[in-house]
Amino acid sequence: MTISTSRPEDLIRAEAKALGFDLCRFTDLDDAWPAAARLEAYVAAGRHGEMGWMEETLERRRHPRGMWPDARSAIVLGVNYGPDADPLEVLSHPDRGAISVYAQGDDYHDLIKSRLKALGRWIQARFGGELKVFVDTAPLMEKPLAERAGVGWQGRHTNLVSREFGSWLFLGSILTTLELAPDAAEPAHCGSCTACLEVCPTNAFPAPFQLDARRCISYLTIELKGPIPLEFREALGNRIYGCDDCLAVCPWNKFAQAGREQKLAAREALRAPPLAELARLDDPAFRTLFSKSPVKRLGRDRFLRNVLYAIGNSGDRALAVEARRLLDDASPLVRGAAVWALAQLTSYAEFERLRAERMIDEPDSEVRTEWFDPPDLD
Predict the structure, then answer these.
(1) What are 151-172's pLDDT values in tens digits?
(2) Is residue 293, in this structure, part of any structural domain at all?
(3) I need a labelling partner for 10 at 20 to 30 A (CA). Which of 26, 136, 302, 315 fits?
């Protein structure tokens, strides 16, 4: 269906701005989708780790019309979530937890989807047509779509970069049967900068524009269900949910001050919470603290796993009391992480004493492995 109204794109942009979106761009869906080949190679190399849904939905991800064959245009929208302080400053306070900027407020999926639905209703009332709204939980490759629409470009860290908002953009998309005039694609503006690659604590970028999720702290602390491999635990530092390093060092972030009135607010309690307090969370307290937060989906046990690794990296022997208490936790995942934390914070003699006491009744093989294969002790 073709719209008869002159410049409907301008009207849609104005409505999107009124609803709280910072960017609104358009693209058609007629051409081939080069990103499909890159995704196939990524999955074939196993770099998606335990994210099996990427392989299961590979066919639908090959082209936006794989999601909906009748779609003719895409409306790509961005919301600035640029932080109001240096997100890496918390890394210099090892007794506190570093939570990724995007997870310090309410879940952006819910916030953006409500705005997308409101915009969709307005578009249908004004112009007709059919449409579907998407946030990144659906198998739609939003970053290549955003690049094609001119929202930004995929930087060397594989994240989208905007000239106006740097690396701090949430994305949402609307596929529609309307034929809307496409915007020009955004060429890359990274130049020779490699800051995002060099800052990565775990060397998760095998090459520019390539990410091995299995080495990425965001994947390790959020997607990985079991114990985090030993080789990465020290590199976690005090990062307990996600990692902002490669985003935060992007030079284009200096322009992210624009549109601050649309920024999604962080909760003070989640900016740099004390590790000692987090280690004491039972399940009800965890659910209360992270109500409406994406962290809640992680679950208390995996979250405490991350907190205990951070405690082990803190160098603060006073925090050993928290790890020692969690040796009695019902979750083997938590108990195993507590063993590792104690191995970092206690003397050889104390660790040996605890091992002798605890190994007698420990039923879980992975926890027993932690006791028998600790890192070098002082």
Answers:
(1) 999 999 999 999 999 999 999 9
(2) yes
(3) 136
CA 28/CA 247 separation, integer angstroms: 29
Q: Which of 136, 212, 283, 301 is catalytic?
A: 136
Tokens of 16: 């999107």
Q: Which helix (H) or strand (E) holds 28?
A: strand 23-28
What is the domain count for the chain? 1
Measured between alpha carbons, how far is 18 from 118 in angstroms, rounded to an integer?
A: 11
pLDDT at 262: 46
At 261 the pLDDT is: 46
Residue 145 to residue 141: CA distance in whole angstroms: 6
Known catalytic residue at 86:
no
Over 260-284, what HEC string results?
HHHCCCCCHHHCCCEHHHHHCCCHH
Tell me the pTM. 0.89
* Cβ-Cβ contacts under 8 Å for 257 (sequence gap 6 or more): 82
146 belongs to a structural domain: no
SS3 for 165-218, per residue? CECCEEEEEEEECCECCCCCCCCCCCCCCCHHHHCCCCCCCCECCECCHHHCHH
pLDDT of residue 68: 85
The token duo for 81 is 């979530």
pLDDT of residue 39: 59
pLDDT of residue 329: 97
Alpha carbon distance 217, 220 (integer Å): 5
Token pair of 115 as six digits: 């705005």
Give the residue ranges of the chain where pLDDT is below 50.
1, 3-4, 53, 258-262
Q: Which two tokens stand for residue 120?
A: 């969709």
